[in-house]
């Protein structure tokens, strides 16, 4: 199992707007292609204006195929401009859990 951890620093004050549009439109498009959403978070203490979402994939090839399908989806292409200008910095990590790491039963 591999976990993709996507971290976005948003423009000051735009977390409510970002979360609203993702909840109303974006998350269903993502879930239809990416599959297992582990969690979707926003910062409350510490680094401000930060969004983190985590997706689980069976392999890096699985991730690549799913991301390509998402990027090719016309609904996703129409959705992206609604969040693109809210994001100042984006970071992406691929993490693999240690053998002793707890895992959700869904994975």
From TrEMBL:
It comes from Rhizobium brockwellii. Pfam families: NIPSNAP. Residues 3-102 form the NIPSNAP domain. Gene3D superfamilies: 3.30.70.100. Signal peptide: none annotated. This is NIPSNAP family protein. InterPro entries: Dimeric_a/b-barrel (IPR011008), NIPSNAP (IPR012577), NipSnap_domain (IPR051557). It comes from the Bacteria.
């Amino acid at each position: 199992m591999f976990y993709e951890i996507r971290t976005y620093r948003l423009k000051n004050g735009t977390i409510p707007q970002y979360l609203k549009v993702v909840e109303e439109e974006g998350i269903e498009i993502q879930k239809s292609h990416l599959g297992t959403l582990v969690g979707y978070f926003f910062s409350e203490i510490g680094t401000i204006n930060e969004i983190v979402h985590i997706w689980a994939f069976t392999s890096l090839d699985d991730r690549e195929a799913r991301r390509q399908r998402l990027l090719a989806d016309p609904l996703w292409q129409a959705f992206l401009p609604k969040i693109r200008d809210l994001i100042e910095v984006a970071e992406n990590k691929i993490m693999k859990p240690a053998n002793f790491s707890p895992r959700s039963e869904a994975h």
